[in-house]
Structure formats: structure tokens, C-alpha cells
Amino acid sequence: MRQHIQNVTIQNPAGLVLDLDRVDFIDSTGLGVLVGAAKRMRMAKGAFRIVNSQDFLDELFRLTRLNEVFDLYESLDQALAEVKAQIQASTAIENESQDRGGR
Amino acid sequence: MSSTEIEIPPAFEHLAMVRSVLANALEAEGALKQERLQDLRLAVSEGTTNAIESHQAAGTDAPVRIGVAVEATQVTVSIADQGGGFDPAKLKPHPPVTDPERLQYERGLGITLMRTLADRCDIETGPTGTTVTLTMNR
What CA dihedral angle connects A79, A80, A81 and A84, to 10 degrees? Predict the structure, then answer.
């Protein structure tokens, strides 16, 4: 998982959604991978969301207080919609700023 | 009352086997409720990960030993390594979750989780190794 996420984040994507609904076990190493992904996405100013509807993961995020660090969603559709909206908003701001710079 | 001991080489590929053996043994015995068993499974995984890391850091191929004891009122799991030990008092606490610096900490949740998930977590550590004992009340 770490390698796969690193391969994706290294390309500085505008958005990344991790769907954990089929994950049946995660420990602190796995949580560290998620923290790393959040960090890299923040540095790249990309949108990052995690999808989870499993109780054991909810509990784990709560115990580690990572629920206050990550943007968690129960539905993949909702997370994807949020990421798309954030990317569109960022692009609009960027375009506006470029327009002003050109005048 | 029963007891089991597992020895694994210090490699992460054996972690899943440890979790599986532990869960199967305790499930077969009806030693813990399912939710508590999942807590113990995660805590043992954290302790075993630390033990494997400790052996790898010390460059030893010696096995990591995991002992499981089921008693009338509690289940105890001990994880013993022969690494170089550590000072629990020197563990750096993570910054608050509201601090952007929190994202700089990708590691260091293992001991916190063990202490949170187990009813009791005792750590004996020294230059010749570390033994973590996790206790769950039945």
C-alpha cells in the first residue's frame, strides 16, 4: 500500500481519494502511510479524502485522533464529488490570478 | 487455563501469521469477546512490529518470541525481543492534531495503541532486549 500510494502521490495529482472499505486490517504502520499521503497531498496543494464506513477503522481513527486530521467520508461518490469541487475551485482561483497578472 | 508460544524470524512477512494464530487460538477457546479479540490482535501486531524492527536494527536473526496464556480472569500475551531496548520516557509525544506539524509524524503510534487497546501494557526494556506484556481482562 505504501509503495502504491507513493507512486501516485509522487505525480502530484490534483486530488486523491483512498477507499478503505475493503481493508480488513490496518495497524500503526498503515496509519503512518495514510498520514504520509495526507502530508504529500497537502504539500502538493492537492485534495485528499478517505472513504471508510467500517466501525473498526472509525474506532482506530478516533483512538489516534486521526479523525481530526483526515477528511473522512462514508461514501465514495460523496468523496469524489468533494475532491472534484475542490479541484474546480482551485483551478478557478488559479485562472483568476493568472488573468489579473496579465493585465 | 492454557498457554502457547510462537517463535518467528524477525521479518514483517510473519506478522499476518502471528495475528492469525493468535486469533484462531483464542477464538477456539472462546477466551475473549470478538471486539476485545480484535483489540488484542491489533495490539499484538503493534508489539510484534516493534520487536521485528528492534531485531532488524540490532542486526540479529534471533527469533521473536510470542507467548499467549489464557487464565480464568485474563488473557496475557508477551512479546519478547533481543534487540537493543529503548527508553519509553524518551518517546516524543505527537503534536496536537490541530498542529500542521502533526503530519510530519508518520510513525510512533504503536505504543500508544497498545496502551489504549489493552487493559494493561507492561514494558520491560534494557540493552539485551524488550518484553511487552499485554493483558486483557475476560
Answer: 120
CA distance B70 to B83: 27
Question: Could you tell me the three cell numbers for A78?
Answer: 460523496
Name the percent of chain A in helix, strand, coil, to the closest 5: 60, 10, 25
Residue of A28, A45, A67 to mutate for B, most B C-beta atoms under 10 A: A28
- DSSP letters along A57-88, please? HHHHHHHHTGGGTS-EES-HHHHHHHHHHHHH
pLDDT 10s digit of each residue in chain B, 138 long?
789 999 999 999 999 999 999 999 999 889 999 999 999 999 999 999 999 999 999 999 999 999 999 999 999 999 999 999 988 777 777 777 677 777 777 777 889 899 999 999 999 999 999 999 999 999
pTM for this predicted structure: 0.84
Q: What is the DSSP letter of B96?
A: P
Question: Dihedral angle at the C-alpha atoms of B23, B25, B27, B31, nearest 10 degrees?
Answer: -110
The reply to whether residue B98 touches residue A68, judged by beta carbons under 8 angstroms, is yes
ipTM of the complex, rounded to two decimals: 0.78
Q: Give A-chain residues touching B100 at CB under 8 angstroms.
A: 42
Cell of A43: 504539500
